[in-house]
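2024-03-11 09:14:02 DEBUG pipeline.ingest accepted 1 chain
2024-03-11 09:14:02 DEBUG pipeline.ingest length=554
2024-03-11 09:14:03 DEBUG pipeline.predict start
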Amino acid sequence: MGRARAGLAGWTIAGVIALVGCEAVLGTGSLGDRSAGEDSGSDSTTTDGSSDGSGSSSGSSSGSSSGSSSGSSSGSDGGSSSGGDSGAHDSGAIADASNPDATTLCDGGLVDLKTDPDNCGSCGHVCAGSGLSHVIATCAAGICGTGCATGWGDCEPDAGQGCTFSLGGDPSNCGACGNVCGNANTTKAPTCSSTGQCVFSCAAGTTHCSASDATGCETTIETDPSNCGECGFACGGTVTCTGYVCRLTAGAETISNRQGINTLLTDGTELYWANDPGGGPPFAVRGVDKDGTNLHSVTPSGDPNGPGTTGGPSLALDQNDFYYFADTYGSAMYRLNKLGSQDAQQISFHAVGASANAVLTDGNATVAATNVYFTQTTNGGGVYRVPVGGATTATNIWGGADCTTLLLQGTTMYFGTGQNTILAFDVTQTMPTVKNFASFSTYPPNGMASDGTSLYVIDGDGNLYAINLTTQNKTTLASGGVNPGAVVTDGVYVYVAGANNLYRVPIIGGGGAFSSYLYVSYTQLPNTSGIAGVVVDANAIYFANYADVYKVHK
């Protein structure tokens, strides 16, 4: 055997380490306890390991001493004559689809004379092994050699014993000769799996993200802004990582009797909310880029018509503007240009003297709205509509009970009522017909989201349901008394802000208690006020806790 060391022949294991390490952190528990005591698996290969695992490197070196001369003479004498005879077939050749280089006809099949140990250099030239432990015959560039069998390595080439080291199970030669599983920040000695992967038990707040197994649990995912909460999740800009989450606003917002950030919106690039960094009303519409840069007020300085404060201001948007009520009793609705180029303009006066609850448009971040809808929870309740161009008074769509949340799916508007029902109407109708969609045994629904297939609803008892939009069949996804501040979905999970925490509930495979789906606990955050608004995109979850805006990996 030559000096080259052999790895796990035929394995493709480089580059997976970061993913494996992060899986151990994610799990299904909360971010705060995902790394403590969990095993972090790695299947990375060092530079030595990749060269060790190549059959040509190992075969070429040992082939020159043990198989090269034999291969030469056999290949030129026996191989060519034998190959010429055995390969002489006019039809019936079988191609090997997995090897496009197999172009030589030998005994009825197409082979690659450069790599086939049974036809090495010429048809019928069979390479012989050395007879040493776990050593197999190889063929590289049409020359016979020897190499290590899968899972074995020649880690002491000078000993002349063959491939005697098992590369599965030895933390000093894990997956490749000399690939050591490091023990930095581990709670117990690392092990090597039977498939040649380092397995780490990482201390709380750490995991293994490096391409080198020797570094152990080298990454502090609790505070590392380049690996915040999981390997490779970067906060961006100068944003800090604290408690496994990125703190986008870094304490720039203040709490005003828990009536600060409540509604969180996005136009795809920026996040928006209503609050006042000065600590009191009138509030301003505020924004920040998703990487934590460009924290600013959309509301012009000195504008007296900022969002109202009752219960935390409700806020809606469309392609061009924000919409909100500007006083405590929800009597005056205003429109504010997203560029903040002028003071907010009043578009309606709602004279019922009742508190407005939800506000929603029939547009979105890329489509201009035609109407703004809102609910009220006192003085008889109801759902109202105001055209974005303005109207003297709002049009009553439905009345008769206090109304809670609003959700637009397609052209259908859903809303919850104090009669423990969800009702729906078509927003394209001038005077819509309101129909019953779903009923609950106790208490009205408090939060809704939809992925186009189902409506995801939390009722007043704190149970999360999936209700099919076509059949109205209801399935329980989570239970346990969570009072939600927001409900959103990405079609795979339902994210719920409730009981001061953030929960992530799987749409398929759910059905357990809310406590089993805890994703972020308010105790992880610098300011321990409860979690409120939630927004989700393809890469991250964004949430507010009345005082700050955060980003966390999905």
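2024-03-11 09:14:41 DEBUG pipeline.report Residues 55-86 form the longest helix (32 residues).
2024-03-11 09:14:41 DEBUG pipeline.predict end
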